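REQUEST FORM: STRUCTURE PREDICTION
Request ID: SP-0412
Submitted by: Lab K.M.
Chain count: 1
Length (residues): 69
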Amino acid sequence: MRIVVDLNRCQGYAQCVFLAPRVFELRGDEALGYACAPAPEEYERVRRAAAACPVGAVSFGEPAGADGA
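STATUS: Completed
RESULT:
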């Protein structure tokens, strides 16, 4: 899994931080930090975090080449 956050869209609501604290963190008042490639045990939390983002700033998918091609 590869995470992408549109930091121009992110408004700092921090729903992702609450739902996946091992992947997302607030740095300062509104700066979001995150792990681009979380551990597999965090995938479900990341899916929930992406769904909970009120502005749709969090997306995820498979990294390029992950299909073995």
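NOTES: Strands lie at 2-5, 24-27, 31-34, 58-61.
Reviewed by: T.R.
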